[in-house]
């Protein structure tokens, strides 16, 4: 029997299907298994169903903000969490770190930076 290669599991929480699609494609191409959630309820569902190695959360979500999602994730999982936003600022970086997120990535993304920081947080 051939051993299956381990692939880190990533959950992307972003209501913008185009952004989620680009992130998903890039991460799959780099060897990650990817799940998508488009709101806070889906994020909670998937975190309850799977053990993710890392989670990416958009800060602007319908209904419940990404900040709130990051806050409730820390009680549900030990996975490193990274925020993603189109409105990055130093205040946002400090706010997400206070909530327990590892870092924040601003759009447009530097995929090599995302992948490098995610791999570092996983190991």
End-to-end Cα distance, whole Å, is: 27 Å
Overall residue-averaged pLDDT value: 91
- What name does the CATH topology carry? Rossmann fold
Shape: globular
- Per CATH, the architecture is 3-Layer(aba) Sandwich
Pattern of helices and strands:
EHEHEHEHEH
Low-confidence stretches: none
Task: Tell how many strands the DSSP assignment holds.
Answer: 5
Strand order of the largest sheet: 2-1-3-4-5
CATH C-level class is: Alpha Beta
Number of domains: 1
Summed up, the helix count is 5
Give structural attributes.
123 residues; alpha/beta; Rossmann fold; 5-stranded parallel β-sheet; 5 strands; globular
Task: Provide a descriptive summary of the structure in words.
This protein has 123 residues and is α/β, with parallel strands linked by helices. The protein has a single domain, classed as Response regulator (Rossmann fold, 3-Layer(aba) Sandwich), CATH 3.40.50. It is 45% helix and 20% strand. Helix 2 (40-49) packs parallel to helix 3.
């Amino acid at each position: 029997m051939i051993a299956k290669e381990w692939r880190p599991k990533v959950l992307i929480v972003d209501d913008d299907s185009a952004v989620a699609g680009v992130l998903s494609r890039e991460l799959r191409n780099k060897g990650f298994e990817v799940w998508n959630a488009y709101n806070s309820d889906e994020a909670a569902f998937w975190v309850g169903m799977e053990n993710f190695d890392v989670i990416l959360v958009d800060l602007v979500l319908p209904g419940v903000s990404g900040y709130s999602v990051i806050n409730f994730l820390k009680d549900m999982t030990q996975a490193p969490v990274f925020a993603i936003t189109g409105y990055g600022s130093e205040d946002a970086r400090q706010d997400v770190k206070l909530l327990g997120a590892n870092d924040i990535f601003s759009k447009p993304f530097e995929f090599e930076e995302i992948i490098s920081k995610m791999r570092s947080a996983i190991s």
